[in-house]
Structures are given as C-alpha cells and as structure tokens.
Amino acid sequence: MAESFEIGGKKIGLFGTDNEGSPLVILNTYSGEGERVFRECALLGAKPFTLAAISNLGWNADMTPWENPPIYRNGEPFSGKADEYLALLSSKIIPAIMERLRATPSYTAIAGYSLGGLFALYASYKSGLFSRIATASASLWFPRFLDFAQSQSFRRKPDAVYLSLGDAESKARNKTLATVQENAERLFGILKGNGIAVQFELNAGNHFADCENRMAKAIGWILEHERKMG
Q1: Residues 6+ away with beta carbon under 8 Å from 175
Q2: Hey, is 33 helix, strand or coil?
Q3: Of 113, 125, 153, 135, whose CA–CA distance to 65 is shortest?
Q4: In which element (H, E) is residue 116 found?
Q5: Average pLDDT estimate for 162-190
Q6: How far apart are CA 210 and CA 74, in angstroms?
Q7: DSSP run (H or E) holding 54
Q8: Has residue 147 got a pLDDT over 80?
Q9: pLDDT (mean) for 197-213
Q10: Which residues pair with 78 in a beta bridge?
Q11: 230 pLDDT exceeds 50?
Q12: How far is CA 118 from the centre of its chain?
C-alpha cells in the first residue's frame, strides 16, 4: 500500500502502511528512489516495516549540518540548513506520517545514503526521535563532522547503527572525499566504544554502485537487529 502527500514543499511517500505497529523508517532521498529501496528490502527478505521516503529536498542545504565551501571547483556550496529541516521533519512531517498510520510504530528509525546518511547521524545527535540509524555511503568526509561526533552525545542512545561504504570510495582523487573510509572507521570506533551496537561493511564499487541495494541492506540490518534484541 502506498500513499503520498506534501508538507513544506517536501514530498512524502509511504510504503507498507498495512504493517500495523511495525517499525517506521524515515528515508531522505536524493531523487525519489524510496519505492525502489522498499522493493529491494522485500527482495532481501527484510522484516515488515513502514517506509516514509522524503524527496524534493535541497540536498546540499537540508542534509548538511553547517556551511562549507564547495569541494569541487565551480561546485555547489553546502549551506548547512539541517537544523531547519530537522525542525520541519520533527514538528510537521513525522506527526503527519503518524496520523496516516493504522497503529503506533514499534519504533522510528532514520536512514539515508550519501549526504542523507550524514543527516541521519547528525539528526540522531540533535533529536531523540530515532532509535536506530541506517546509513550507506554516508558523507563522513564532511569537514568537522568527526570532531562533532567525538564531542557530542546522542540525544537518545541508538539501539543499532549500520555504516557502509564502497571499497573504492577512499580512492577518490578529491582529497576531501578520500578521507571517507578513515572517518567511517573512526566513527565505528567511537560508537562501539560508547557501547552502541554498530556494524560497518565495505561493499564492492564506488559511491554510485548499487545504491538502492546498499540502502536496503542497511535498513534490513537494523530491522533484523531489533528482532534479535526482542
């Protein structure tokens, strides 16, 4: 079952709303790939859940925690509007999603790819709404994010965090992007050291390989982890 609506210029697609009381996963998408990710989850045999896929985002604005110059010559700068988007998400979008569900979810998780994965982590440090985090190829190269993660505590200690990268991502010619694996491994250590159940995996390929499958695998892992905990 699928439903769509719009709030604050953001488009929200709901998938799996017939799963009464099942987990809710919030997925911020770059190009409206939510339905494809949901189908991949089914193909991987993921535990039933409801997916709220949000699109029409200002990717370099809504998904970034603070301003940063472009990392490419003539590239788009990062305007750091994550706090504003998180306020919209928590005060209007998620309540509207809850109103459309048949039952209260067993928990709410947040997921994202690339800058969407960066936002998923950042939002969990800033908000207590999310009990699990699923990321794939998260933009952990983003300047000063590891310093932020080392100095901050999650508003709500997550039950499970999944991190993954393509094994070619650290070979990027851009020196900033090339830090992504080192930073992911450092974040893995920070989370593990804080007693958080965390998984880090390397997948074959670069940043753009098998994106929907990688995202689905991330979501499937946090859902399965919850099953083991239960």
Answers
A1: none
A2: coil
A3: 125
A4: helix 115-126
A5: 96
A6: 28
A7: strand 50-55
A8: yes
A9: 94
A10: 68
A11: no
A12: 7
